């Protein structure tokens, strides 16, 4: 016990002395959540709209003017004569939506004939897509109502959604995001800290000492559990204050589950560092080993339900897949441990297995 | 096993795949002796030490350290030995006293013991004023002496020093050897590796390793007589030069 305390104290010194790394570790999740959160945000603002106007006339110009003066909702980024220009505008992201007029727009309206109008919307993110669609149609119908006060106008909009919708709604992102940043940062912390000792050679002094491998592992994990927990709290507060994601269930349960998830991720880092010999390799392994699976297979970005069966099976071993489930359930559905005990057990089992494997790796070194 | 022997190795071997780093070495070290392990870089000195300290399992042969078999008694050995690795074993971002407390704690010394031993150690090294200085800002020579003293903190029966003087200036090397003598005089067995042949003269007995085997073993005087040369350096050159005169290694006659 005294040996363990000495180790814990020593690790705390390491953390405290290396202020820069500590700052990065604490600030990175906060910054990442903001960056990603806004990148993924589905707020309909500054929608980049392109106008295809083959034969400008009074009506098309009036309607164009409407889009240009919506007070920030729309931003007309291009006015082109032909639809063939649209493809690259959409691909480059210069346009999120396009309004396509046909020649003779004003003439048809003047004659009381229906004037067709094509609205094309980028629906890569379906929520954003449908929001944009509604906004565009609102602008059109407002114009129609206003101008049609004397004689009715008949603009007939047709909507076309571009790109395939795959994603779920916005609130689902933030819990996933939490899992994403927490797992990377945690795995990185322990992966680096143990390989650093291998590089400097101090690990040998620990290995020839009477310390048990599990003591070395626990001595490495526990202090970083503290650092990681600060990140958990920061990220939960951030989700609430900045992204207005509610926490409908127990905050304490959420924090406890966060702590458990951090433990699993730290254990991944420890295992990586027990099996690698340089900080560089460990860092890459931790990044790749946590980032990709968490991004792709946790249900954070892509719904697991729509994945092929084999991929769904692989996803079962990704810790974030369970934490995303837990975090979403607590935050959005407000459920308690009675519905989440299975997921919780899976995470606990993962931590146990990973820590045992790490301690074993130390033994293996001596074989 | 004789109680007078601190270390006893018989045909100790370590292979890595097809490469044999240590090839059937046989030697023993008496209690309180300063035993030198000499050899070029890559001759197998560090591998041999790593086997004796329990960092690496032998692939052949047997060895006992402090009366315990390295294959079965690794845990018991750990409490009896001190080790100063070739690479630096103190934490540079910890202060002198924090390093001492860490290793004291690891070896289960009470805080009272740690304090008493730390005070004595720092006084002996003349480092009392630097107790709260981070190790990274202490000159290399002092660090090595400190690392040596920390390896002795738990009063081990045997201490292994792997290239303790490499990269250190001659004056500090001399002082370091004085520390080694003091330690041996107090009854601690010292096994030290070096590639400075002049340091062999400081050892009670030396073994010179060449390509994983013990090329020669004995007191410095015996070796010089045997090879009819004036310095251990010349003995080493004779051994290392292919086709040079090499008598049957005394340890290899098992």
Brief characterization of the structure:
Chain A has helices at residues 2-17, 19-40, 58-68, 86-92, 105-110, 126-147, 173-200, 202-208, 213-241, 251-275, 279-297, 309-315, 319-333, 337-366; strands at 47-52, 74-80, 97-100, 115-122, 155-162. With 367 residues, chain A is an alpha/beta fold.
What does this protein look like?
The complex is a heterodimer of chains A (367) and B (254). Chain A has 367 residues and is an alpha/beta fold. Chain A folds into 2 domains: 47-162, abc type-2 transporter like fold; 169-366, no CATH class. Chain A is built from 14 helices and 5 strands. Chain A has helices at 2-17, 19-40, 58-68, 86-92, 105-110, 126-147, 173-200, 202-208, 213-241, 251-275, 279-297, 309-315, 319-333, 337-366; strands at residues 47-52, 74-80, 97-100, 115-122, 155-162. In chain A, helix 2 (19-40) packs across helix 9 (213-241). The longest helix of chain A is centred in the C-terminal third of the chain and has 30 residues, at 337-366. Chain B is α/β, with parallel strands linked by helices and 254 residues long. Chain B has helices at 45-52, 74-80, 96-106, 111-125, 140-151, 170-185, 220-227, 232-240; strands spanning 5-16, 19-30, 34-39, 60-65, 68-69, 81-84, 158-162, 189-194, 205-210, 213-218. In chain B, a hairpin with a 2-residue loop joins strand 9 and strand 10 (213-218). Chain B is globular, with a radius of gyration of 18 Å. The model of chain B has no long low-confidence stretch (mean pLDDT 88).
């Amino acid at each position: 016990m005294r040996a363990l305390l000495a180790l814990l104290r020593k690790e705390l010194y390491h953390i405290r002395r290396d202020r820069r790394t500590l700052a990065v570790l604490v600030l990175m999740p906060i910054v990442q959540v903001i960056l990603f959160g806004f990148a993924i945000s589905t707020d309909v603002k500054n929608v980049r709209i392109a106008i295809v106007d083959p034969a400008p006339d009074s009506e098309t110009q009036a309607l164009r003017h409407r889009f240009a003066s919506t007070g920030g909702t729309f931003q007309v980024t291009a006015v082109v004569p032909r639809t063939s220009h649209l493809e690259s505008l959409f691909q480059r992201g210069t346009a999120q939506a396009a309004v396509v007029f046909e020649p003779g727009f004003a003439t048809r309206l003047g004659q009381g004939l229906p004037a067709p109008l094509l609205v094309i919307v980028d629906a890569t993110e379906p929520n954003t897509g449908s929001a944009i669609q509604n906004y565009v149609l609102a602008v059109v119908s407002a114009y129609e109502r206003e101008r049609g006060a004397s004689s009715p106008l008949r603009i007939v909009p047709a909507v076309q959604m571009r790109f395939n919708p795959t994603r779920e709604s916005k609130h689902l992102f933030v819990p996933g995001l939490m899992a994403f940043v927490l797992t990377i940062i945690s795995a990185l912390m322990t992966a680096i800290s143990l390989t650093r000792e291998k590089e400097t050679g101090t690990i040998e002094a620990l290995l020839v000492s009477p310390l048990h491998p599990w003591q070395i592992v626990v001595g490495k994990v526990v202090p970083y559990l503290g650092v990681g927990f600060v990140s958990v709290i920061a990220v939960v507060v951030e989700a609430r204050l900045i992204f207005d994601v509610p926490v409908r269930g127990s905050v304490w349960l959420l924090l406890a589950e966060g702590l458990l998830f951090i433990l699993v991720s730290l254990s991944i880092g420890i295992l990586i560092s027990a099996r690698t010999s340089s900080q560089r390799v460990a860092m890459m392994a931790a990044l790749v080993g946590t980032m990709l699976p968490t991004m792709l297979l946790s249900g954070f970005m892509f719904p697991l339900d729509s994945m092929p069966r084999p991929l769904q099976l692989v996803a079962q071993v990704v810790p974030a897949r369970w934490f995303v489930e837990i975090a979403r359930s607590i935050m959005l559905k407000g459920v308690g441990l009675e519905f989440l005990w299975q997921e919780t057990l899976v995470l606990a089992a993962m931590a146990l297995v990973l820590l045992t494997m790490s301690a074993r790796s130390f033994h293996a070194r001596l074989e | 096993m004789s109680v007078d022997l601190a270390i006893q190795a018989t045909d100790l071997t370590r292979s890595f795949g097809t490469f044999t780093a240590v090839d059937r070495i046989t030697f023993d070290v008496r209690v309180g002796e300063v035993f030198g392990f000499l050899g070029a870089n890559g001759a197998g000195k560090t591998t041999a030490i790593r086997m004796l300290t329990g960092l690496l399992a032998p692939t052949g042969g047997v060895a006992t350290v402090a009366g315990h078999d390295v294959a079965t008694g690794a845990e018991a050995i750990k409490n009896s030995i001190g080790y100063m690795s070739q690479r630096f074993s103190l934490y540079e971002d910890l202060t002198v006293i924090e390093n001492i407390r860490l290793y004291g704690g690891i070896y289960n010394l009470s805080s009272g013991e740690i304090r008493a031993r730390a005070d004595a150690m720092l006084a002996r090294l003349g480092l009392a004023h630097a107790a709260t200085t981070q190790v990274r800002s202490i000159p290399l020579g002092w660090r090595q002496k400190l690392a040596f003293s920390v390896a002795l903190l738990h009063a081990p029966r045997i201490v292994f020093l792997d290239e303790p003087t490499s990269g250190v200036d001659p004056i500090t090397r001399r002082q370091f050897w004085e520390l080694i003598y003091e330690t041996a005089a107090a009854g601690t067995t010292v096994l030290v590796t070096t590639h400075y042949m002049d340091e062999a003269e400081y050892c009670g007995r030396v073994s010179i390793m060449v390509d994983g085997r013990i090329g020669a073993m004995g007191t410095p005087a015996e070796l010089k007589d045997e090879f009819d040369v004036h310095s251990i350096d010349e003995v080493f050159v004779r051994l290392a030069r292919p086709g040079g005169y090499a008598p049957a290694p005394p340890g290899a006659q098992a």
